[in-house]
Design a protein that fits this description.
It is a single chain. The chain is mainly α. It is built from four helices and two strands. The protein has a two-stranded antiparallel ribbon. Helix 1 packs antiparallel against helix 3. The longest helix has 22 residues.
């Protein structure tokens, strides 16, 4: 999979997971239980939890989290930047030589100029 396709796939998955949260009227911080501690009945708790887990990966109990999909996107974007730098920093490929008579292309005229108007760019050239 090329880098741009990978980037597009990651962005698409982020949009899909956020759409799942939106369809349940939830965000990353919406409470999933009512005040009595029971799962809320007005949202699909499993779907919301799954979307949240896919979007974030909790790495400690201090609520420090990494948004894994956005990190993946940043990594792919960096790879694209490096690939573009390599493309533009590489020396140009030499053009094929036209020494052999087989490669010489004969140009055929496609127009004929009968005259040039005075004061026109062609007249001044």
């Amino acid at each position: 999979m090329n880098l741009m396709a990978k980037k597009d796939a990651i962005e698409k998955e982020i949009r899909e997971q956020q759409a799942l949260l939106n369809s349940n009227s939830s965000t990353m911080t919406t409470e999933l239980v009512d005040r009595d501690g029971f799962p809320r009945g007005d949202i699909d708790v499993f779907t919301v939890r799954h979307a949240r887990v896919r979007l974030i990966d909790t790495i400690s109990s201090v609520n420090v989290s990494i948004i894994e999909l956005r990190n993946d996107l940043a990594a792919v974007t960096e790879e694209i930047a490096v690939a573009l730098q390599n493309v533009f920093n590489s020396p140009p490929e030499p053009e094929p030589s036209t020494d052999s008579p087989e490669q010489v292309e004969t140009l055929k005229p496609f127009a004929r100029v009968d005259g040039v108007a005075p004061g026109s760019p062609a007249n001044e050239a």
